[in-house]
Design brief:
Layout: H1 22-43, H2 49-65, H3 75-87, H4 92-106, H5 113-123, H6 125-134, H7 142-159, H8 161-166, H9 175-180, H10 195-215, H11 218-221, H12 225-247, H13 259-275
């Protein structure tokens, strides 16, 4: 199987660059490049685990400590740090991602649902905090945003169960749940899901729905109209994906959003954003 890397057009929920004002587009672009560069290191099968970790620490040193670098390869990292200073952002929204990618590099295995959620709080939640911060949203929005981001990450992991196991040699399913439903590693590589894997998928999606519910309060407490609209669309897309995963088979065919799914999510999300009454946070 050939190695594949997602680009911003292949992500389920790519950042809508046109929703950002011109003054924010550069920092969003550089932040995305930072995350993608680090993710590609962690996902590269031709680099040994320790070397991956070293490369990720090097990236962190350039970002946090202005470590000297040669050529133009890491110019975007230095630019990103300057932009972080300009917007007065917490560097943790970038460096937390590297903690997750270092776990990926070493092939960390998750024993419990809580461990998987904790990993997603580093691999996905920083992106939500970053988006809220550059829009100067109240920090009270961070907690429900974390729940939504974790839900998005878990949906992506469930979509990619077979690919992650076969190519990246990773299993983003808690061992306690694998044991409960009698699912073996070999079951993740088959052409179709076993009864146990289908039950496990249903259980994870039910837990994920709980996270989405926690994140559903976001539109009511976000000040930015454009960001509120994007969040409403993402909530709609997430619910659509959960239904598609439960209806389909994640091993038989990678489940993805259709153009029709996007259209109805945009319509429903935009309508919800326009009709949602926002609350004033203290």
């Amino acid at each position: 199987m050939k190695m594949r890397h997602k680009n911003k057009h292949q992500e389920n929920f790519p950042v809508g660059m046109m929703l950002f004002g011109r003054e924010k587009r550069q920092i969003v672009s550089d932040y995305y490049q930072f995350a993608r560069y680090a993710d590609d290191i962690a996902d590269n099968p031709d680099i040994k685990p320790k070397k991956k970790v070293d490369k990720l620490y090097e990236l962190e040193d350039i970002f946090l400590r202005n470590k000297p670098y040669k050529g133009q390869k890491f110019r975007f990292v230095a630019n990103l740090r300057n932009e972080f200073d300009k917007f007065q952002l917490s560097t943790s929204t970038a460096t937390d991602l590297l903690i997750a990618f270092r776990k990926d590099s070493m092939g960390f295995e998750y024993q419990t649902w809580g461990q998987l959620v904790d990993y997603c709080k580093y691999s996905a939640a920083p992106v939500g905090r970053f988006m809220l911060a550059i829009h100067n949203e109240n920090p009270s929005t961070y907690l429900p945003a974390t729940s939504l981001c974790v839900a998005l990450q878990i949906v992506n992991h469930v979509q990619d169960i077979k690919y992650d196991c076969e190519v990246l040699k990773r299993i983003y399913l808690p061992a306690e749940m694998l044991n409960k439903y009698h699912v073996l590693k070999a079951d993740l590589l088959k052409e179709k899901s076993s009864l146990g894997l289908k039950k496990l998928t249903e259980a994870i999606m039910e837990l994920t729905r709980g996270l989405v519910k926690e994140g559903s309060v976001l539109p009511e407490i976000i000040k930015s109209r454009s960001l509120r609209t994007e969040v409403c669309i993402i909530l709609s897309l997430t619910n659509i994906m959960i239904k598609k995963i439960l209806k389909g088979d994640v091993l038989a065919k990678r489940i993805k959003l259709s153009k029709w799914d996007w259209l109805r999510a945009v319509i429903a999300g935009t309508f919800k954003a326009l009709t949602t009454k926002t609350k004033t946070l203290s």
